[in-house]
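YM 10:42: CBS domain containing protein sequence, as discussed on the call
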Amino acid sequence: MRVKHEAPLINPDDKLADVLENIIGSRCRCGIVVSEDRIEGVINLMSIVRKIALEWIKGREPHETIERLYVRDVRYQPHIVFEEHVEPVSALMDMLTHGLDFVVKMDSDKYTVYTVLDALNDLVELLRGDHVGSVVSSQSWWVAYPDISVRDAFLQTSMLPTWRLIVIESDGSIRGIFSATDFLRAILRGERPYTEPISSFISTTTPKSVDYDEALVTAVKIMSLHNIYIMPVARGEKGFAGVVLAHDIGRLAAIRSLQSSSRELR
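YM 10:58: structure's back
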């Protein structure tokens, strides 16, 4: 397990507005909450998104929530801390079992993280011969249409294990990406695009996508390069065919690892 990314350390008494940009900008989209040299927990982007969404449903707009909350007000997420070397497949299976995007490695003076995307890079050879179509998800909850409001799109992301929605037209063509990270950055800049249609706040109009018949290793390389956990899948002239998720690729990599181990034991 090659740990590569140092995670931002935050204090439970920090104002959320003061640390949010650091969390959004980190590779793991998380912050390690440390008090008196002891790790108290982890908050990630999704825990923040869900807290803001819950407050929004109650009538408090996102900028009000961000300005009044402290780190300690956000629900800490489950986390796994390793102090010794762990094999990539073991770390990946722990992440998949517990629904995590990363595990934490504790060194003498810092905390670093090892993500699902890191594990996929380390195990990519197991996926040679597999294609995107074997893991594509066609579930409709990853999709939004251009005429829904930004508020509704944000609330939709709060119910998903990632913070992106694929925006598609009625003919199936991919319009772009709605990202909760870009939405929160806009709030920090003072923008208030709450009731506008999502078409006015598509953060990526030329999203990275992959073809249904493409090699799966290509999807892994694109997702790792751009640090994305969900990517739209196209199928020729038919347009949008679904999405590919890093965790679904991880499950296939874990299966391939078990199959490889089984062959070696024969």
